[in-house]
Amino acid sequence: MPTYTYLAMKNASESVEGILVANDEKTASDQIVRMGLTPIRVVPLLAKENKPVQMFFSVQKTLSRQNLTRSDLALFTRQIRSLMRARVDLLKALSILAGQADKQKLKKLLLDMHTLVKNGASFSDSLARHSRFFPAVYVDLIRSAEASGRLEDVLEELDNFLTKEEEFRTHVYTALAYPLFIVIVGICVVFVLFSYVIPQLSSLFADFENKLPLPTQIMIAVGSFFQAWWGVLLAGIGLLIFWVIQMSNNPKGRVRLDWIRLRIPILGPLEMKQSLLRFCRTLSLLIKSGLPIYQALQISVPTLENAIFVRELEIVKREVIEGVSLASSIKKVSFFPVYVTQMIAVGEEGGRLDSVLDEVANFYAQEVSATLKIITSLLEPAIILVLGIILGGVVLAMLLPIFQINMLVQ
Hints:
- By secondary structure, this protein is mainly alpha-helical.
- Helices cover 72% and strands 5% of the residues.
- Helix 9 (214-248) crosses helix 10 (251-263).
């Protein structure tokens, strides 16, 4: 059914805006009248393609193909916080955000939330319906805020949290984008060079009567191998990628992959720091929002992307529920540095665990940033050096037979 936005008068001095679903404009106007309002304007809510937006209720199917991002979530949080701070009621705030949403899927999501809240659902329940967009941490925080009457404060904390997360993620992507681009270009250049260019040049030495120099023989052999087996190489790479995807979808396989990732030099310690950063920042947010420590652990532990970390922290979660202090339990986790356990102990003793965890998260954010700078500063010249050696070796292998001919002539 089509969706309409309306402007109506509640009394001589008060107007009302909203969204409703009806078969046509006349039916929509009749609904407004039955609500005790006087309709002033009833307009179809149009999508980008100038077609009426259809309300959707098969959320899982629609959002499985979504292109909504963390940036959209951060923007939604910032906007809903600003509207509620301006004392705009929740229904009207959702109506305003739906009307100005740029993405069609986000518009549909907000319209569905508006309908749910209008029909009596709580804000947290409407968020939980869209779990593919709103993470469990987000929903649980809003639910706790509704119970304690601190919705505006929690939205502000969520806004700060998502802003930091987005800044960190952008920083990581920006730092790694150029080196990864160079790696991809370098691999493509080497592949084309050995599978096409060198075999073409090798025909120049087909009638060479003397024995070719060793570098030239190696170059021709490698080129012949690439020319004959390039399809097998590509198929092997594709099978490797498929195997990794299949392993990551299996719990036991994911543990093995995460174990391998942690053992990779440089990248393993970097991932550990990133996990500590995410865990401490999420746990700090949850405690700051008023959740008890055991509930905060239940929500924050699943947010970690490494299955090994999750498995060890599940033990911590159980011990804390049984009454053990967080600091005592954390000491048993192998990947938690002494610095973190001592800071957590200080935070628990001083009753300021949330601020201490925030300090630890900021420390590891700086550590990750410094590590990324070192990696990017060393990776670029290393890749250029490797490509230079390969190209220089090819040039040398091509020139050596020519030098050999000149020596024979003299």
